[in-house]
Write a structure and sequence with these properties.
heterodimer, A: Ammonium transporter fold, three-stranded antiparallel sheet, globular, disordered C terminus, B: alpha+beta, Alpha-Beta Plaits, two-stranded antiparallel sheet, 6 strands
């Protein structure tokens, strides 16, 4: 992502079209994530799970226009730590372009593309606190988190400005093509902090909390896979040779990780699962995210295989350490992001990207690996600490954790006054395939009567 | 009269229904149920975490019969619901004081 601000407005149509298309692809990843997560929770919480993601699509967009873009990509203030206020309200962006001479794109194309990254990163956190967070608290938390955690880290990792940009990207020169730090490690570390502050779900490790709809999970994973081409290949901010390499690498790593995750399951648990194949695909896409623009397709194969296998083992850590990261944001995004960032230190080669560097396996020495570790560690530490503080503040003021009564009844009813599935209107039909597991959720809709009768005809 | 209640494996419902029909039973009530006996439940694994699912899906079949038919009906159900594997279910009967047909008000044997 080489980004130089130039005042002359001659844009490359091909590059612009691809970046705008990519923005749409990445935006689709958020509803995809909502389905991926929604299927994994119990039926009484699926709407709340989806709602947390849709809230991010709304709220982050508003914040982005007002000051988010400026804090992230405004002229650097403070040595690569934060953007300035020169783009408040997207002021001055209408005629601006970004990118190197010959493949410039409108600044607003870049801005909307980056906005979709902010949205999905915020949405990712919802998986750590499934089933137990007040919606109002979530709204406040996400607003604060975007402001104090995401925008700064995205500035560090994504803002190039001829040596005056973000400290990770433009000064340290760690390599992160599409967001291994700002998106993946950041969301993983923030998720851990959030899960620790909010606490475990009632009955965690005692009651079965099985995914209520694996088809939803698989649909979500499939759409995430699709959208990830925009996420990674769009991050080339151009439509050319490197873009195609990134596209291929994304496919290779995602596919390989889907296989390596279920291979671990087959060996360890005896059966390959659909949740495993979906999780593996996501873990692979996560791991290749930072590396996709710096490694060869064979390198992507290694990154994918490692990402799928390591994440499939990492999701068990929560049981060992006793934190309820409900949908494994830490194990998949945090660990997968680390795998990707570290793999660059070994597998990066300038033959893929002249703006990159050579890793250990390509004779580049250990310097790159060191820079990758510094970037990863700093992101992890900052996200963990600041998110914990923000979550604590919201918990003590607006309130983040819901009441036991509401948690038991389910957040769909208690937070949104809705139910995802109403089977009371359908006839029972034949008993073929009676298949309920015996964990009917409390607080379902029942076959209640209307509290308010519908208005009579002609009485509007 | 007796109320014969059977809790059986869901996939055996058709066999039981057909066998009862062949025996001459004109009506029955079926409901979904869940529970466990010696079979206990089963385990499921999600992302490596093992869940024990105690309650297994079952179907409950209820038939009202004359005293004379009760033992034979129990036999018919046993025969048609049996797989010989653990978890086949239970059948029991209890005495019924009175039965009425809602449509006509008929009582006792005529209401069956």
């Amino acid at each position: 992502m080489n980004l130089q601000l130039v005042g002359v407005a001659t844009v490359s149509p091909g590059d612009t079209a691809w970046v705008l298309m990519s923005a749409a692809l990445v935006l689709l990843m958020t509803p995809a994530l909502a389905l991926f997560y929604g299927g994994m929770v119990r039926a009484k919480n699926v709407l709340n799970m989806i709602m947390m993601s849709f809230l991010c699509m709304g709220l982050i967009t508003v914040i982005w226009v007002i000051y988010g873009y400026s804090l992230t990509f405004g002229t650097d203030v403070g040595g690569g730590v934060l953007g300035g206020l020169n783009y408040l309200g997207l002021e001055g962006t209408l005629d601006a372009v970004v990118g190197p001479e010959g493949s410039q794109i409108p600044m607003l194309a870049f801005s909307v593309f980056q906005l979709t990254f902010a949205i999905i990163t915020a949405s990712l956190l919802s998986g750590a606190v499934a089933d137990r967070v007040k919606f109002g608290g979530w709204v406040f938390f996400i607003g604060l988190w975007a402001t104090f955690v995401y925008f700064p880290i995205a500035h560090w990792a994504f803002f190039f400005d001829g040596g005056n940009g973000g400290w990770i990207a433009d000064r340290l020169h760690a390599l992160d093509f599409a967001g291994g730090t700002a998106v993946e490690i950041n969301s993983g570390a923030s998720a851990l902090a959030l899960a620790l502050v909010v606490g475990k779900r009632m009955g965690w490790r005692r009651d079965p909390m099985r995914p209520h709809s694996l088809p939803l999970v698989l649909l979500g994973a499939g759409l995430l896979w699709f959208g990830w081409f925009g996420f990674n290949a769009g991050s080339a901010l151009a439509s050319g040779q490197l873009t195609a390499t990134v596209f291929m690498n994304t496919q290779v790593a995602t596919a390989t990780a889907a296989l390596s995750w279920i291979l671990v399951e087959k060996i360890r648990d005896g059966k390959p699962t659909t949740l495993g194949v979906a999780s593996g695909a996501v873990a692979g896409a996560v791991a290749i995210t930072p590396a996709c623009g710096f490694v060869t397709p064979m390198g992507a194969l290694v990154v994918g295989a490692a990402g799928g296998a390591i994440c499939s083992l990492a999701v068990g850590l929560k049981y060992r350490f006793g934190y309820d990261d409900s949908l494994d944001v830490v194990g998949v995004h945090g660990v997968g992001g680390l795998v990707g960032m570290i793999s660059i230190g070994f597998l990066a080669t300038v033959s893929v990207n002249s703006a990159g560097a050579d890793g250990l396996f390509y004779g580049g020495g250990a310097g790159l690996l060191g820079r990758q570790l510094i970037a990863s560690g700093a992101t992890l530490a900052y996200a963990l600490i600041v998110t914990a503080i923000l979550a604590f503040i919201v918990e003590k003021t607006v309130g983040l954790r819901t009441s036991p009564e509401h948690e038991y009844a389910g957040l769909d009813i208690s937070e949104h006054a809705e139910s995802a599935y109403d089977f009371t209107g359908s006839s029972a039909g034949a008993f073929a395939g009676v298949g309920h597991g015996g964990f009917g959720h409390a607080g379902g809709p029942g076959s209640g009567t209307l509290a308010t009768p519908p208005p009579t005809e002609g009485n509007s | 009269m007796k109320l014969v209640t059977a809790v059986i494996k869901p996939f055996k419902l058709d066999d039981v229904k057909n066998a009862l029909e062949a025996y001459g039973i004109n009506g029955l009530t079926v409901s979904e149920a869940s529970g466990y006996g010696r079979q206990r439940g089963h385990t499921e694994v999600y992302r490596g975490a093992e869940y024990t699912v105690d309650l297994v899906p079952k179907v409950r079949v209820e038939v009202l019969v004359d005293d004379d038919d009760a033992e034979s009906v129990v036999d018919v159900i046993i025969k048609s619901a049996q797989t010989g594997r653990i978890g086949d279910g239970k059948v029991w009967m209890i005495p019924v004081d009175s039965v009425a047909r809602v449509r006509t008000g008929e009582r006792g044997h005529d209401a069956l």
